[in-house]
Amino acid sequence: MHTKSREYQKKALNTWLFRMGMLRKLPSVFFWGIRIIDLTTKASILTIPYNWKTQNPFSSMYFAALAGAAELSTGALCQLHLADRTPHSMLVTNFTMEYVKKANTLITLTCEQGDEVEKFLNGLTQKGDSGRITLISEAINSKQELVATAKITWSIMRK
User: Which pTM was predicted?
Assistant: First the structure.
């Protein structure tokens, strides 16, 4: 990992710096209490608590809170890989999420496709090159049961 990637990783894993950055850029992430637990070139792991801020009227986690956490788990992994590269733009172009179990505990979301992100970005060699990559984030409850699976397609363009 290079210098800017290490700096990005350090900021993401520092609870105070991460929360202040989210308050400024993504206030819903700050409000929901999402935390990045681990961020490496291989994987991104984060948690979202089940509490009054993330709960819906049906005593489970609000779908938008879980979807936002899933997007962040994939986006943070991309951002880590982009930190040492020339500028790129990122945009979610497709999002699907299958909910398979009620989310009513602390949820851990994991995206383990860092190698695929690296390979994809290495293919964007010229200014203006773009492509799409679909990343998967799995949401697991405190009993280690699958709660949901999100598939997020990112369009990334080299500036």
Answer: 0.94
